[in-house]
Each structure stands twice: as structure tokens, then as C-alpha cells.
Amino acid sequence: MNRLSSQSRELAVLERDHLQQLLDVLGKRGYRVRGPTVRDRAIVYDDLTSVADLPVGWTDEQDGGTYRLKRRNDGALFGYAVGPDSWKKFLHPPVVRLWRAKPGGNGFQIIEEPEAVPKSAFIGVRPCEIHAIAIQDKVFLNGVYRDPLYEARRRGLFIVAVNCSHAGGTCFCVSMNTGPKARFGFDLALTEVLEADRHYFVAELGTELGARILGEVPHEAAGEEEKAAAERVVAKTASEMGRRMYTRDLEDLLHRSYESPHWDEVAKRCLTCGNCTMVCPTCFCTTLEDVTDLTGEHAERWRKWDSCFTMDFSYIHGGSVRASAMARYRQWMTHKLATWVDQFGTSGCVGCGRCITWCPVAIDITEEVNAIRQSVGRS
Ligand code: SF4
Ligand code: SF4
Predict the structure, then answer these.
(1) How many CA atoms lie within 13 A of 179 on its CB side?
(2) What's the Cα-to-Cα distance from 50 to each of 35, 66, 120, 359, rounded to whole Å?
(3) Looking at residue 379, what is its pLDDT?
(4) What is the per-residue pLDDT across 291-326, written as a single tens digit (0 to 9) for each?
(5) Distance set, CA 63 to CA 9, 60, 170, 277, 360 (Å)
(6) Ligand 2 centroid vs 364 CA: distance in angstroms?
(7) pLDDT band per the 50, 70, 90 thresholds, residue 3
(8) Ligand 1 binding pocket includes 332 (Cβ within 6 Å)
(9) What span, in angstroms and rounded, lies between the C-alpha atoms of 107 and 218?
(10) Position 377 confidence tier, pLDDT thresholds 50, 70, 90
(11) Does the beta carbon of 359 sit less than 6 angstroms from any atom of ligand 1?
């Protein structure tokens, strides 16, 4: 896919009523279109066939351990922050069968899983989520070993980003420099603008393919007023961040804080449930599970998401390396914010706030960093 340079990116205007045509064009081109929708009183990612499937007129309230949907007093299509799902569930599925085996010859015959993955179009990818996908690209595609399952799903992916018009109560993308405006990694980026008598999107072209697809949908070149309106949307969101992460010297701070007494304090609250790792869009750990039927004639190997909060995760001969909750929380946070940089050249946190919202006891990574700073006497 040819990416447009940031200098050559054009801005267009797409009226709200033409968004359905964009979904239709993607469907006709063979994409499986996925995006946000309301289910079980949360905004999750699933198949989309119509604009009506989007969370029209919904917003959310988020805080530590709190998530609630609320009606807006307008018809915004993207007037909410990220929910419990991230796009990783499509690119790096939670459960996948790797192979089956049955008796054959002198032993077993392995039957590989067919890998027919339809190409996907993701609608409504937030800027922090684009950063999360870029981080998983590094993990799965840029190392010595490439993950073929991730590669098959990532190949041909069409990304329609949506710049944020609403900051969630636990968002801190501004401090992590990942939002609320998408700057790379998309085919099209939309900013939703709601005015008293008009509802439209300012669309930025990110790739040649994005330009071709937009070319099949009615649109016009954006005027100065419309461009300024889109900028105001993003600037307002940036000013309304729910949280802030103090990132100064963060890696160094954490590398020097292994003995901080604050790890014991947070361990008293942490349930080691692993929710934070499941909702995090960058966490990538997996385990393997082999199962057989009762006859022993059929065996399967499955790959499943795992969490560094389980005892088994660090089990080696003789026991678990991280036997205490303190050791497991410390490993998770120092990996996210410090050793991830050593490993992959980037932070493992994009400031989406999910681990704060979905922690049942409201442990807050931004607050824990502040407490660690205080515990070792650095402001
Ligand atoms: S920090 Fe919260 S979400 Fe994560 S393991 Fe502990 S209790 Fe569970
Ligand atoms: S560590 Fe928390 S805030 Fe950071 S990317 Fe993961 S879920 Fe989002």
C-alpha cells in the first residue's frame, strides 16, 4: 500500500449521509467491515453492515473501575472513548487452534489449520489504537520470528481512523503523545463535526488506496472553515484528558525502583485477576494448550491469550519465578513503561486508560507511577 507523505495529505469533506456509501464501497471491494457497536451495555468491536450499527447518540462515563453508557443529546456516531475491546482481538485472536493430529503411519499425522483470512476494514480506530497496532506490528512482524497468524490478519487491513471528539475519564493519550489526533498508520482519518444544522466529517487521506476508495464516495474538498472546525474538535478533546502520566525520566525511575515499598502497597489491592492485561491493546502474551478426546484418536493444539498475572506464566522447573502479587504487578508495570522500551524501542503503553477503567479495584497506572516517584523521593 502506498502511503501519502504528510505534506501531500489532502482534506476532504464527507457529509454524514454519505458514510453509509463508504461502508458499502468497502463491502463491495471484499472487506469484512468491523467497527464499534453497542452490546451488553458497552461499546465493543464487531461486524458492521450499516451506519445504524454504530453507537449513534451514545457516549460513555469512565473512571477507575467504572464504565457506563449514557445517551447524548445529539446524533454523534463516534462521541465516546475506547471500550473494553481493542482491535487486537481481530489481529491477535484470544483463542486460535494451531493444528489437529490423528493417528497415521507409525505415529501421528499433523493436520495444519487452513489460514483463509478475509481482509478487514476497521472503522473508528482511535489514534491511541493506531499506536497500539504499530507496537504489535513491531512485536509480531519486526523481530527474528514473524507471527504468521498476525501477519495474515494484518495484511490488506484498511484503517479508517476517527480522531477523538470525547476524552474518556481515564484517557491520557496526550501525555503519551499518541492522541487525540491520528498522525500516521491510517488509510483515511475522519474528524466528526456536529454543528447546529450540519453533521459532517473532515477526511484526511493517508494512502493512495484511501484516496481511491474515498473517490468512490461523494465528497468535496474541505474549506478553511471546515478544516478549522476539525482542528477545534481535536484541540478541545486534548484539553479534556481524564488523566495525565508524568513521563519524565520514567524508564530510569522504574529501573531504580525495584525495591520501592510502594509495590507492597499496590499488591495489597491487586487481585491478580489479569483484567489489565486482557484489555490492554499492546499486551501480547500467549500460552499453548494441548487437548485430546477420550479415545486418544484426536488431539489439538490451541494458542490462547495468557497473562503475566498468573502463577503459571513464570513457572519454570521448581516453581513460579514471580510467586507474589507484588512481583507480578511490578513486572507488569515495569515492563509496560520501562523494559518494553529496552525490548522494542517504544513504551508498551499508549495511554488508552483501559487498564484503569476495567480494573475491578480501580488500580490506576498513572497514580501508581506518582506513588513510586514519591516513594523514592523524586518529584
Ligand atoms: S491491577 Fe487490577 S486488573 Fe490488573 S491484575 Fe491487579 S486487580 Fe486485576
Ligand atoms: S497499560 Fe493501560 S493505559 Fe497503557 S496501553 Fe495498556 S491498557 Fe492502555
Answers:
(1) 37
(2) 10, 29, 15, 33
(3) 45
(4) 999 998 999 999 999 999 999 999 999 899 999 999
(5) 36, 10, 6, 18, 11
(6) 10
(7) low
(8) no
(9) 61
(10) confident
(11) yes
State residue 105's pLDDT score: 82
Pairing of strands 11-15, 220-221: antiparallel
Ligand 2 in reach of 245 Cβ (< 6 A): no
Calculate how far, in angstroms, residue 375's C-alpha sits from the geometric centre of ligand 2: 22
Span from the CA of 329 to the centroid of ligand 1 (angstroms): 8
* Confidence class for position 4, pLDDT limits 50, 70, 90: low
If residue 203 lies in a helix (H) or strand (E), which one and from where to where? strand 198-205
β strands within 16-169, DSSP E: 32-39, 42-47, 58-63, 66-71, 95-104, 107-112, 120-125, 158-162
For 254-322, the DSSP string reads HHT-TT-THHHHHHHH-----HHHHH-SS---EEEEEEE-TTSS-EEEEEEE--TTSTGGGEETTEES-
Of 186, 190, 242, nearest to 356 (Cα)?
Answer: 242
Provide the grid cell at 370.
Answer: 506518582
Give the residue from 45, 7, 49 showing the smallest Cα distance to 26: 49
**Alpha-carbon span 262 to 367, nearest angstrom:** 11
Residue 339 to residue 349: CA distance in whole angstroms = 12
CB-count exposure of residue 215 (10 Å: 0-12, 13-18, 19+): exposed
Nearest CA to ligand 1 atom 6: 270
Q: Residue for cell digits 506464566?
A: 313
What are the tens digits of pLDDT across the range 32-79? 999 999 999 999 999 999 999 999 999 999 999 999 999 999 999 999
Average pLDDT for the chain: 95
Query: Ligand 2 in contact with 282 (CB < 6 A)?
Result: yes
Q: Which atom of ligand 2 is nearest to the CA of 353?
A: 3
